[in-house]
Amino acid sequence: MTETGKYHLPEGQLSLSGPVVRPAIGTLPIRGDLAHIALADKYFVANYVMPQLREIGPAGAALLCLPRDGADEVTRLDAGAMFEALDYSGDWCWGCLGPQGPSGYLRIAELAPRTGG
Predict the structure, then answer these.
(1) Based on CB atoms within 10 Å of each CB, which residue in 4, 13, 19, 109 is the most buried?
(2) Which domain of life is it from (predicted)?
């Protein structure tokens, strides 16, 4: 991450050099349909996303493997921790702590309310 809080976009031509082992669920922020922009030079997916920095709310949050209650917990996120949101769907947000993970789902309600403009 740069000092301005934005990731550098990959430069030059991206190319595939052969099969890549898919990371385990809950590790790198990559799914079949999208991935963190910082992984664009390593993994091929349909869409790359620039993360939206969000704060975990006052109760903390469980980062889950799947977007459903009772799913396996990847890790517990402390209140005030910064979370990189990559996708929102229904009541759930998928994201990570950074391009090296961990990654998973949490309820949008567990994020601190947005402030400012």
Answers:
(1) 109
(2) Bacteria
Instruction: Characterize the bridge pairing of strands 34-36 and 103-107.
Output: unpaired
79: domain CATH number? 2.30.30.40
In a domain, 60, yes or no: yes
Q: Say if 45 falls within a structural domain.
A: yes
> For residue 106, what are the domain limits?
34-110
Residue 87 CA to residue 34 CA, distance in Å, equals: 9
Q: What is the DSSP string of 58-96?
A: TT-EEEESSSSTTPPEEEEEPTT-EEEEEEEETTEEEEE
With beta carbons less than 8 A apart as the criterion, state whether 100 and 35 touch: no
pLDDT tens string, the chain, 117 residues long: the values are 433 356 666 666 666 666 667 788 899 999 989 999 999 988 889 999 999 999 999 999 999 999 999 999 999 999 999 999 999 999 999 999 999 999 999 999 999 998 765
